[in-house]
Amino acid sequence: MDNSLVYAKITKNSDIIFALMVVGIIVMFIIPMPTVLMDILLAANITFSMVIILVSIYTIEPLDISVFPSLLLFATLFRLGLNVSTTRLILGQGYAGEIIMSFGNFVVGGNYVVGLIIFLILIVIQFIVITKGAERVAEVAARFTLDAMPGKQMSIDADLNAGIIDEKEAKYERAKIRKEADFYGAMDGASKFVKGDAIAGIIITFINIIGGLIIGMIQQNMGFAEAAQTYTLLTVGDGLVSQIPALLISTATGMVVTRSASENNMGQEMTDQLLKQPKALFIAAAVLTVLGFVPGLPTLPFIFLAVFIAVMGYLMLNASVEEKAVEKSPEQTQISEAQKQEARQEELKQLIKVDKLEIEVGYNLISLVLPKQGGDFLERVSVIRKQIAAELGIILPPVRIVDNLQLEPNIYCIKLQGVEISRYRLYADKYLAMDPGHTLEEIEGIETEEPAFGTPAIWIEEEDRERAEMANYTVVDPSSVLATHLTEVIKKHSHELLGRQEVKKLIDNIKDDQKAVIDELIPDKMNLGGIQKILQNLLWENIPIKNLVLILETLADHAGRTNDITVLTEYVRQALSRQISSQFTGPDNTLYVFTIDPAKEEQLVNALEQSDQGNYLSLQPAQAQNIINQIVEQAKELLEKGNDPILLTSPMIRRPIKELVHRTFEDLIVLSFNELEPDVDLQVQGVVK
Description:
Elements: H1 3-12, H2 14-30, H3 35-58, H4 68-93, H5 98-107, H6 112-162, H7 167-219, H8 224-258, H9 266-274, H10 278-292, H11 299-328, H12 330-352, E1 357-361, H13 366-369, H14 377-392, E2 399-403, E3 411-416, E4 419-425, E5 430-434, E6 446-449, E7 456-461, H15 465-470, E8 474-476, H16 478-492, H17 494-497, H18 500-511, H19 515-521, H20 528-540, H21 548-558, H22 565-575, H23 577-584, E9 590-596, H24 598-606, E10 608-611, E11 614-617, H25 621-640, E12 646-649, H26 651-662, E13 669-672, E14 681-688
Parallel strand pairs: 1-2, 9-12, 9-14, 12-13
Antiparallel strand pairs: 1-3, 3-4, 5-7, 5-8, 6-7, 10-11
Helix pairs in contact: 2-4, 3-4, 3-8, 4-7, 4-8, 5-8, 6-7, 6-8, 6-14, 7-8, 10-11, 14-16, 19-21, 20-22, 21-22
């Protein structure tokens, strides 16, 4: 059988194997184990501990062994189970297997006093030095990791908004931060198990010695010396067998919690860093040489180490000289110059690069956009991106935020494709109070208009905020003003933000699930540019493109018969009739509209002309102005009644009418009869004659 298949089967059933091992440990607490099985389990414990410490040495980041806290608990439980089983064998039979006997005789030379001292030394090293240090490091690391989480999250959000990373990378980094916090928190708790295990080892050892003396002298009729020799030797052997693996795991715990993220494993890092200074090695060699000739000290070990360290220093010095020679070589100089040239070219590219969406802020507004100064605008941009994706169905390009010292200190401007489209005077230390029409008193402040919707407002001081809210003003902070303004600008110009690259991303997002319709449509019937123009047409009239699958299905049905973008857009709008009806009707499914007189509509149909850009109305200037005036008048009447300004026409003239009136009244909504569901309750409020 293939080795990979065997490994796959083992890993596939690893959960069952682990569960059986835990059950086996529980059984060890209850059922006596034969000595042969105990030898196998004790050997497995030593092996397991060696594997853990070796894996810790080769671990590059602590999260590479994120299971370590649970592993620590499992190892502690396993070791305690072995202690209970060996105690039962030692006190019950006076024999606990070959491994414990060998440790009692060979390792400590059969002298239980020596063995007891070695055991106590191991306990002191583990309990006072390693375990205590690892516990403290884990506690501090957990606290510092939790304290650093908000800053790291803001840094990720800033990189995401700046376009340095994408959503997938941001999601990975956020998950990594959460895992680090969970890991160090778990290690803080798990290190207590190591401490408890060391204490338990001391107590178990003394219980075994006292219990062994009692059993040996009273039940086995041994003398004190014989009982002490027999049971103390076995107990010390048992203690060493259990504490050596415990010491290895404690050391591994210390390695993991003190390990900082790096590119190499611990051995490579220590070699590179400790041998980086040849002078230090030469000084150490000189000191060892002097010690070698001190009367009474052994000469050979010190001289041998001095020569060894001196040779290492010499080799490191030569390697360092060679590296510097390579750095100064003409070839390296040419590479360096090439890199500088490349950096200059990259700088020039950045200068001529035009961002799709950019915000420039004056000096006084920098605090709103810098997280280090308490600004939360970058977080708000992330929320805006999600809001636009949910409402319109588009993925915004990165929003670049820069400071511009040429602007007035309180001014910010929003640029689209490098051209300013809006600016506003914002006060970072004040609040914007808007009058909804039923305020109780007048508040003094700097008069202005809210930038997103143009409603009258005033800038008030922070101490007047509570008073304004009590007077029924709507009070918002500066970041909210900027965020709302940016959101409305994005909605208004969303069709300009949707480029071919953004369309490709949208299609790629559904490609795996909708492969059939995409393969049928692209590239045989339509190209990416054609789909982009249709999606832009929809967004231009505030029609969300969230239902991209239905849009592509409709294009696949009709693109074979016509390549007219305007006609295809109308087909898509008709397919989206349920969405459009729901978008503009109220809770009672009523739609308040005004229409065009049938005779007038027929004149307009006859006035349609075809061009490369689609159909348009060929009208005399006076005639066109008369129609525009009537439509604007009817639309304003609907607005005064609290309804959307909706004009209902036939499909043929819907788009030309919208284009005709757009420059004069861009908020006009023009729908056709084919875009409405049959159950919509139409309420005609006026007629254009």
